[in-house]
Amino acid sequence: MLMDRASTPTHDTDPHGLDDGAAAMARRRALFFFLVLATIAGAIALMVATLSSGGFDLLDAVLTLCFALTLPWTVIGFWNAVIGFVLMRRHRDPAAVVCPLQGDPPNAVTSKTAILSCIRNEDADRVVHHLDRMIQGLHQSENGQAFEIFVLSDSTWPECIEAEETSIRRLRERWSPQMSIRYRRRPDNPGFKAGNIQDFMSRWGDGFDFALVLDADSLMAPETILHMVGIMQRNPRLGILQSLIVGLPSTSAFARIFQFGMRLGMRSYSLGSAWWQGDSGPYWGHNALLRVKPFREHCRLDPLPGRPPLGGWILSHDQVEAVLMRRAGYAVRVLPLEHGSWEENPPTLVEFIRRDLRWCQGNLQYLRLLGTPGLHPIGRVQLVLAILMFIGSPAWVLFMTLAALQIGRVPEAGPMFDPVLGWSLFGLIMTMVFAPKLATLGSLLLSRDGRAAFGGGPRLLAGAFGEILFSTLLAPVMALAHTLFMGGLVFGKAIVWSPQRRETHRLKVTQALRRLWPQTLFGVAALLWLISTDAAGAVFLSPFIFGALLAVPIAVLTAWPVFGAWLARIGFWRIPEEVDPPPLIRSLGLPAIGRRRGYVPATDQVAADSIGVD
């Protein structure tokens, strides 16, 4: 069992990856948690004062409890954004402030790195196409001999297995003998992806210093890979180095909106979180470099006791592996640079929900791990926050439902809440919710290069306004999905480990209704309630109501290929890789790049030299 393999915890510091300014980091963390706890306390006090206008009864107490459960992630995001904004405005290189690690130069690679492509029933041609681009770049850097490729398959569909074997054979023929490429498929899948990686560690780990973990949709620039390897070489107590992953340009409307919002929020959020997390950062399971020896010795995951959904193999393995690596005395850090590391985001709302529910079940399994001995305090906090990320959804749904009941009571004694305090609280929460996006947006607008990276100030502002509106409508859809799913977990319903559908850019109305009818039904009932009440407080609930009501139209529209292609053509919700595509991105021949107005396709040999993927 994981809890029985506690290594001796090492919480001291080391100049080679671990925090060498222990006192300074302790002060940062103390300040951060003081700000978070004080803000939570202030928000709860404001809620109590708001509800006390007409007396404070049991329903008000339950409302306050639900409200409190939704606060930790919101408040932490707010202070991450504030800190990130300050770092962006005060420092020319804020990433170096929060991740002050030096690396060996690319021409001094002395280590051996395995590049692990972990796949399960995926599009083999696309996987191989991405690998081919990375191999070519590493070969051109004259460091190809320091890397080997391992395609680690857990596929079970015969057509996928056949395609994998064919595509890998072609990749080998193209790069032999310059690059060693191995293909291994497990007939059974114990441990899911974590087990897939540990199988590699057991079989081949002795021959490598580092392992670069990739998902089927991952793409990394060779210079980024070499930079990360150099950092790992120079810092022997660095166990995991996580790159900051951004979305590839897409013609899916849903993916375009989602990853535009991610780019707005991630810069301030990641800088702020790295400022106080330091050497106890997160690991997201891919596009990350692992130190093989400690990972193999300290990060093996056994099944949790009991049956699924909370027992069995851990679905959200990455954060557990991060806290175990830190427990073993090795640093886990995020390299907060927004270039050179990409993934594909879900193309439809339905696929996005499916992925999120898998994470939901995996994060709730952390309830079984909170008592694990020897964890670094920050690691334990991260597990708690990962649980609260999803527990906040049913708390929010219950809060909205009870608030509607409270508003509808309309007693003769007067209003049930203070409208001035209510609007103040509403404004405070909305500010904190959108703070990461607003902070990054503000920093970009204050920078000529920042505005240009997103296609100019007006386009950036219009995109930000549209994305905030979209995310406001999306939030209740996701909250209801999480709530219903967690209700099913109580009765033993578990998610099935299945591949993400990355190519589905179309969704019929019937398909959307089949998945989103609970949100629609909730929205219809709530709209009827809204029409029937004349209480002024009902306006607070309208975003939640209309988001649920419009779930199906939103899902269908954002999955419509014509709409997505039109957005790509006019350059709306454009990300920097579309404005100025790096050579590696140009070489992929992505439709989102070729369809935008004014774009002239690259004609260099890198773009033309493919291995058969059109």
From TrEMBL:
One Pfam family matching this protein: Glyco_trans_2_3
Listed InterPro entries: Glyco_trans_2-like (IPR001173), Glycosyltr_2/OpgH_subfam (IPR050321), Nucleotide-diphossugar_trans (IPR029044)
Top-level division of the source organism's lineage: Bacteria
Keywords: Cell inner membrane, Cell membrane, Glycosyltransferase, Membrane, Transferase, Transmembrane, Transmembrane helix
One cellular-component annotation, GO: plasma membrane
Domain Glycosyltransferase 2-like: 212-434
Metabolic or biological pathway: Glycan metabolism; osmoregulated periplasmic glucan (OPG) biosynthesis
Protein name: Glucans biosynthesis glucosyltransferase H
Classification of source organism: Bacteria, Pseudomonadati, Pseudomonadota, Gammaproteobacteria, Chromatiales
